[in-house]
Amino acid sequence: MQPNDEVYHLFHLCESSIQFIQSLYKHMLFRERLAENKELCGASAILQLVQNTLKLPEHDDPLLASVVDRLKSKVLSIVSPIMCRHYLHK
């Protein structure tokens, strides 16, 4: 396996994991529990996932660039409503 192939594979695994979290987020109960969890704005796993994903650098490789953009978009779609809800209920 070439180094780039390994990177593509890892990015696709990350994308699959984030896709799974997105599918859970579609269920109201999961979304409500997540929004009520006080650790969300601290050091929670989901917040760390979002922060680390948003820190991913841009790439010259068009395939990697598109995967990184999709990852960032997906994590933002998960966390944005939760964060808005948290700050509105403070």
TrEMBL record:
<dbReference type="InterPro" id="IPR057287">
    <property type="entry name" value="Ndx_N"/>
</dbReference>
<keyword id="KW-0238">DNA-binding</keyword>
<keyword id="KW-0371">Homeobox</keyword>
<protein>
    <submittedName>
        <fullName>Nodulin homeobox protein</fullName>
    </submittedName>
</protein>
<dbReference type="GO" id="GO:0003697">
    <property type="term" value="F:single-stranded DNA binding"/>
</dbReference>
<dbReference type="Pfam" id="PF25246">
    <property type="entry name" value="Nodulin_N"/>
</dbReference>
<dbReference type="GO" id="GO:0009908">
    <property type="term" value="P:flower development"/>
</dbReference>
<feature type="domain" description="Nodulin homeobox N-terminal">
    <location>
        <begin position="3"/>
        <end position="81"/>
    </location>
</feature>
<dbReference type="InterPro" id="IPR039325">
    <property type="entry name" value="NDX"/>
</dbReference>
